[in-house]
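Hello, quick one for you while I still have it in my head. My current little project is about how a certain protein chain folds up. You're getting the sequence in one-letter code plus the fold written as tokens. Would you mind checking whether the tokens look sensible for this chain? Here's the protein in full, and shout if anything looks odd to you:
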Amino acid sequence: MIDAVRPPGEGEATQWGKWIVEGVSSGRLPRCTEPLSQLLIQIDDAVEVGEEFGRFLSQIQPVGEDLLRTQSEGVRFMTMTGSKGLTVRAAIIVGVDNDLIPRPDQDLAEERRLLYVAMTRPQEFLFLTWASTRRGPAARSGRANIGRRQPTDFLRGGPVESQDGIAFIQGLTR
């Protein structure tokens, strides 16, 4: 049966997931489960139209894992880079200190983009934290630090205003 299946011609604007699901529904390809069919279609969104079949197949595991994570209940810990492409109800971005974001000796545009990506993941709640002082091993994080720490310069002049964390939490319980 599979020998009779002809893939799209080279250079065509192929969406492999759609092609596979159509092949299954027409009986040209063996049956697959509904969750697998949905995953194949969702991978089309993660891969550019016209990519090679190998590139499409390489995305099954990472896209499947991302979808599983987005559908799970509970708290997930991830890097700002790892949050790309995900949607969450709430996000807490920790360590938005000027001495940590941007990271020393890194491309400012890329650091700004990473923070933007992380800040645009939540649908309802976004919290950013920073410490005005650090003790112990964390005190040595970031650039050499004299005096009090400040929130990242990336937030300066924007709509985000810093609030004292203890006062904020106490205000929630009133």
About this structure: Strands lie at 88-93, 122-128.
